[in-house]
Each structure stands twice: as C-alpha cells, then as structure tokens.
Amino acid sequence: MADKLRVGLIGLGEIAYKSTGRVLQRTEKVEMIVGTDPVAGVAASYEAEYDIPCSTSLEDVLTHADVDAVIISTPHHLHAPLGIQAAEAGKHVIVEKPMATTLGDADALIAACKRAGVLCSSKECGVRYQPATMKAKALIEQGAVGNVMATQVFGAANKPASYWTGGYSGRVQTTWRKSKVESGGGILIMNYIYDIDRLRYITGLEVARVFAEYDTYKTPVEVEDFIALTLRYTNGAVGMFMAGSCAPGAANSGVRGTRAAGNRIFGTHGQIVFEDNQLLVYTENTVDGLTPGAWTELGFPLSSGDDPYVTYFDRFAEAVFEGRDPDAPGEEGRRNLDVFLAAYDSGQTHAPVFLPRQSA
Ligand SMILES: NC(=O)c1ccc[n+]([C@@H]2O[C@H](COP(=O)([O-])OP(=O)(O)OC[C@H]3O[C@@H](n4cnc5c(N)ncnc54)[C@H](O)[C@@H]3O)[C@@H](O)[C@H]2O)c1
Questions:
Q1: Which residues approach ligand 1 with their CB closer than 6 A?
Q2: Tens digit of pLDDT for each residue in 190-219?
C-alpha cells in the first residue's frame, strides 16, 4: 500500500463537491484518485474542479487496482448496496450519513465488510473530532456535570422549496430528499444524526427507549418537516429532540438557523450547553479550568466546520495502516440509525420502541 490511503469517490454531488473534495485536499494521509457519478455532467465538472479522473462507470472505481477505500456520497438508500459492492471488491468503506435507511441494510453492510476484511465507518461520527465535542466529553469524564439526567436537542430551519430537488447548491437535480424510501426520513435523519452521535459519544450512554410524534405540515414531500421525540437512556436519563425544516423566521438554509439551537446536557452537578462557537459550562464541582458555582464560557472555532473531518479521514487511514478498527466502526452508525428508525416507527404506531432492535 502507498503511504497514503487512496480513495475513490462514489457520488459526486453537493457534499462531495463543496466539502469532501476540499477536506481531502487538506488531509495528510488520504488522497482521492478517482470518482464516479451516473450523471455525466456531474462527473465531468468534478474532474475539472479536482483534477482526478471521473466517469459514469462504478466499475472504474471498484476495479481500480490502486483504490484502497471508497467514500459513498449518494442518496441514502444506496449507501448500503454500494458499500456492499465496494467491500466485495476489497475496498474499505466510508459511507455518508446516515449509514443506511433500514437496520437490515446497515447489518448487511457491516457483515459484508467483516467478511471481506475491510473497515467500515459512517461519516456522521466525524463530529467526535470537533474540539467542543472532545472538550465536553473530557469535562463529563472529569465529573463536571455529575451524573447525566437529561439531554436536549433543538433546531429549526426554513428550507427553501429548491432544497428538496437540488440541495442548497442546486448542483444536482434529484428527488431523493423528498422520498421516504430513498432518504429514510426528513429533518431528523437528514440533519440530526450528528447530534445523536455526539450525545451518545459525549455521555457514553445508549438509548433504551424512544417515543416520537411527527408530521408533514407544509412541505410537499413524503418525509416529516417537524418532529418531536423523547428518549430514555440506559442510565435512566431522559432526552428530547425537537426539529423542523419549515419554521418561518429560521434561516433559509443551514441546518439550524435559530439562536436557540444546540445541544444541552443536564447533570446532577452541572450543565453543558453547545452554543454557536462556545461551550457554556456550569459546575458545582472543582474541575480544572472551571469556576465552581458559575458559568464558564469556553470558545471554540466551530465555524471552521470541516476540520473535524480532516481528522476523521486521517484517523480512518491510520486504522487501515495499523490494521485496527476505525475509531468509530460501522456499529456506531448502526446505533445512531437504530434510534432514529425507532422514532419513525414510534410515530407510526404511537407506542414507545425499545432498543437495541434486531433487523428483520
Ligand atoms: N449536501 C450536504 O450539505 C450534505 C452534508 C452532509 C452530508 N451529506 C450527505 O451526503 C450524501 C449525498 O448528499 P448530497 O447532498 O451530496 O446529494 P446530491 O443529490 O447532491 O448528490 C448525490 C449524488 O449521488 C449520485 N448518485 C446517484 N446514484 C448513484 C450511484 N448508483 N453511484 C454513484 N453515484 C450515484 C447522484 O447522481 C448525485 O450526484 C447524503 O448521504 C447526504 O445526507 C450531505
């Protein structure tokens, strides 16, 4: 193997163009060498921008002898089938979030990667390398909040009509974001899978029970445009998510777009609040860098949002080179998916769903 992990990109749409390509240019241990997209114009413009050969043929990536790993950035329902094909071709697999649209697909992808002896990871876990996320995890481990009692995630956007057929950039015209089968769901699975991964990672807790209510209020799509869910964690803590994509007054684009957005963790001896570029921490305890009985503001450059993914890709490459599991193997993506698919099922049955679940 070369001294860098050589990747092939599968799916060259919005995220591959505006983010992943740029991030990979900044990694130390990863190099993109080839790409594919079924839309000829999309492949051609990616090739022009990034100066790597891109074609409409998946085989050009999967049979490419120099490709060590693939990054799959396609509509959600294709992540697992394409990942399985890549694994069977001997390529390590990174899938964009969410890992899949069904637990069966997630399990099949994990199993295919194990059979083939290749690594697998779901990209939402890149939030684990955000400085604020790492700091919050360390503070909880140092006892800053005591035992976690509750978590809160709130966010709202006002996505324009054009989003549903072209994302934020309009680079590719598609309908998959509107389709329940192809996307798996709306605002929750599309934008908040980062938040459930962050909370699970920071607190070390798993979700044991989910109850949700959601609907499609004003967007002409099959997926939800507002959702509320409650969680019960394994330690007994409770959690809530409230998220919408059609909130008047919220920003036109961007996931959150409200000042009150963010993640919040309540413990028996303190609180941690993620707010814009700051981590706000209150503790009753004595912890290095914090003032007991007061709020401490810790500044983080969250706006340089791509940096965690530079680390994510480099760490994945290190795992390949060292022959170990990635920091966040596919099972982590599966756990995130389990929570949100449970929410969607709960919203249909109006009953709580207990986790973890097995695929059918
Ligand atoms: N757009 C964002 O801001 C953003 C941010 C983070 C993650 N993501 C994730 O990235 C993934 C892609 O989203 P996007 O916004 O880039 O969508 P997109 O529709 O802009 O791009 C998807 C691309 O996949 C291609 N494609 C379809 N079938 C394919 C196949 N069989 N083989 C190869 N390519 C195929 C399409 O032609 C399209 O160019 C999704 O999982 C999404 O959740 C997107």
A1: 10-16, 36-39, 42, 58, 73-76, 78, 96-97, 167, 171-172, 174
A2: 999 999 999 999 999 999 999 999 999 999
